[in-house]
Amino acid sequence: MKIRASSIQNTPLVTSRCAQSIVPPWTRGDYRGVTLLPQAHLPTTLSSCRDGGDDFPSTQTNVRGSSGWIGTKAFHVLALFLFLVTPASAQQIYDLLLKNGHVIDPKNQRNGRYDIAVIGNKIVRVGDALPSSNAKLVVDASQYYVTPGLIDIHTHFDAQGAELNLNPDHNALQSGVTTAVDAGSSGWKHFEEFQTRIINHSQTRLLAFLNIVAAGMYGEKVENDVQEMDAEAAARMVKKYPQTIVGIKTAHFQPPTWDAVDRAVKAAELSNSIVMVDFHPKPGRGYPELILKHMRPGDIHTHFYGRLTPQLDAQKKVQPYMWEARKRGILFDVGHGAGSFWFRIAVPAIEQGFLPDTISTDIHKDSIMLPRANMITTMSKFLNIGLTLEQVIERSTVNPATAIRRPELGTLSEGSVADIAVLELEKGQFSFLDSGHGKLIGDKRLSCVLTVRDGKVVWDTKGLSLTEWSQAGPYSNFK
Amino acid sequence: MEEFLPISNSIVALVHRRSARRIACILPLVLAFASVALAQSYDILLQGGHVIDPANGVDQVMDVAISGDRIARVASNLPALQARKVLNVKGLYVTPGLIDLHAHVYGYSGSVFPDDTALLAGTTTVVDAGGAGWRSFDDFKKTIIDASKTRVLVFLNIVGRGMIGPEAEDDVNDMDAVKTAAKIKENPSEVVGIKVAHFGLPGWTALERAVEAGRLSKTPVMVDDKIFTNSGRTSREKLLRVMRPGDLHTHVYNDRQLEVVDRFTGKLQPYMLEARQRGVLFDLGHGGGSFLWPVAARAMEQGFPPDTISTDLHSSSIMIPQSDMANCISKLMNLGMKLQDAIARSTVNPARAVKRFPELGTLGEGKVADIAVFELKTGIFAFKDAWSKKLLGRQKLECIATIRNGRLVADLNGLGFPLWNTAGDYEVIP
């Protein structure tokens, strides 16, 4: 019973045997021929993946108070009931109707004009000509693209934690990001503080990679200290918070040994999760060995267009081991940041068809300024390098959802949570800076005009969902 | 020849002016040498922008040159050739970095980090409005003030523990005027005054203690004071008896704190004018509940603009209402305020209000190089008040670049950087 309930909300904690089988097909990376993902590549329920042994943590009911999943479950049952007993949309009263937008929902292979209806915090219908008269709030999205709420799997939003961290909500939701994954700001020692002071209060769905370093990103000294890297303790914390922690992060490790990576992988094995690696090669600890031997299929190398790892040869040709690693299922994530996204590396790699599997920001106090490494600007950069809008959306929704094993996210499927982004594609002349402040001039720019998170409009630059004050009648105390 | 060599950046301009006439009639070689020496002294040149600098009465196309962390020259046709970085800002407005008198970057539960919220909107100075009190100021200084690129100044809360919730904020035993004043005197470079806010008990204790601390420390008080039933307080009395000339009432277009315009007749309250005449200042403080179109529109119509424009930016006002400085200015412009006037109320006026003029809020030569570059867009734009009601307006001010302390910290059009494919195997370009 517990297991089924949590499978609604959680990563379906797939067993290692299941994990082995996950080699997402988008990793084949055929640039011009990239096809949209046909369907989820992961089992959507735990039952389909239970045969490998069930070590579901007994502590899981502690997460966010037990009433959380009970309430959600009740809602699911109610929503399902409503859905089943209502033959057509005619009698349903929608709380929100996004009308006539250009929907791009790669998971469901939708790319065209649809209406999207929301009741409570769920998407209840995606269809043609849903009646506006049945909606409490209608948003005319005809000038815009409508996509699943974006997923940024490399952020630093433990706002009271490490020095460079930022506040989540305005930095995420204003970019259309409804799910952000903090990439290792905290380790097992401080994760619970992060949970209580930030995660529980943020409107953005905040998930986390747990740093293999017990104290998290608290400076060189601890981050290079192998004694700080306790795989068992980290794995225990991952299993204690299956709703929030999606995997393990290792980063910034300087000594010339494999300790950090190997312990992170060990912690991921113990917790049936994945590893996100930020890698600084050293003599005797090379990059090819990392992606061909130490990392496992489904693990993520972030910052892969950075200067630290040798992804291109002297002629700017993509190294053969990059293709080989991709074939074996290693995922390559952007993690833009203040030092890890360079046009001089990304453009040649993309021209040769080596696209990112996932687009993410590594947003923090420095990267947000000149390089403007928020999600929507980072996506615009890829659009102007030459990815299609579908490719960009795919790499910001379904791909990251699949990578972090949250197949219920990153989609506009009927019945899924109403996390939605409304994006404008502007044409004109725009400039973008990379981490080295090199400039790319492009003719397209994405901006986020409206964000729906958990069924609520939380960002609305153009006031699409709002009333004009002169027609609003008396409001506040004012007559 | 030696006299033309720049001994230090700050005297170059002076040398240049004195010698201009002589140079013009001596050898062309000298002229060439002098201009090279002069041009090299500029680190950044903003070329061809429309400069609005109300403090110096400038409102025309001019170049602005920066050397180190200072404004070196504001003049027409400055030599661009050898400036280290030239930004072509033709068609854009160049103003002093904006000063946001009412921000929340510490203490308050909705506070936000200053750099990503202020600098990207053209704000180079924020004044935290009461997040910290005398007990928590040192922590504020260490964790935020010293860690930000934004200049962070402080109104110290009269409550010793700061703005941490109703229990603390109603605790009159923690409102110590003497200790508050002492903390202000210890930290004159950061603390500019006192904030009193959210007081939920009857009577004048909180405001009177704040004014007392203001008197002891010779600084102004910023007031946020709900007028609620049975509080024993009235707006009229507050503005005309308790507050001093130079004290500020924030949230001027709120309707629960001042009743600027009569809520039934829409007429401007005479006591507002009387208070303004006495020298009480009125600050915008937009926030999540304090900027209403019906109040703002009627007050503006009747000639009662805010003295200073500020955001009360926090985790909720930053979302639907988008109360950053550039948007606050845009909102007032769409209610009829001129851009020049709005810039004055966002630069020189707030600098004066916190006694930081002429150090801040000006593009005067020799002053710190805190500068904002804006584009004034025309079209149809939605602006939202604190109650999520929209106004469709025709002009919108957008920040394009920000220079703080002589450094280009925000550059949304990449004006200050080279194309990647002409820059070779570039490392981080400064």
Give an account of the 3D structure.
The complex is a heterodimer of chains A (479) and B (430). Chain A has 479 residues and is an alpha/beta fold. In chain A, 25% of the residues lie in helices and 22% in strands. In chain A, strand 6, helix 4 and strand 7 form a beta-alpha-beta unit. In chain A, helix 1 crosses helix 3. The longest helix of chain A is centred in the first third of the chain and has 19 residues. Chain A is globular, with a radius of gyration of 22 Å. Chain A starts with a helix and ends in a 19-residue tail after the last strand. Chain B has 430 residues and is of the alpha/beta class. Chain B has a domain of 280 residues: Metal-dependent hydrolases (TIM Barrel, Alpha-Beta Barrel), CATH 3.20.20.140. Chain B contains 13 helices and 15 strands. In chain B, a hairpin with a 2-residue loop joins strand 14 and strand 15. In chain B, helix 1 runs antiparallel to helix 2 and helix 6 runs parallel beside helix 7. At the A-B interface, helix 4, helix 11, strand 13, strand 14 and strand 15 of A face helix 3, helix 10, strand 13, strand 14 and strand 15 of B.
Key traits:
heterodimer, A: 479 residues, alpha/beta, 8-stranded mixed beta sheet, 7-stranded parallel beta sheet, 15 strands, B: 430 residues, TIM Barrel, 13 helices, disordered N terminus
CATH superfamily name of the domain at 98-365 and 385-396 in chain B? Metal-dependent hydrolases
Quaternary form: heterodimer
Instruction: Count helical runs of chain B.
Output: 13
- Outline the low-pLDDT stretches of chain B: 1-25, 27-39
- CATH C-level class of the domain at 98-365 and 385-396 in chain B is Alpha Beta
Number of helices of chain A: 14
Largest sheet of chain A: 8 strands, mixed
Mean pLDDT of chain A: 85
- How many strands in all of chain B? 15
Shape of chain A: globular
Helical fraction of chain A equals 10-25%
Structural class of chain B: alpha/beta
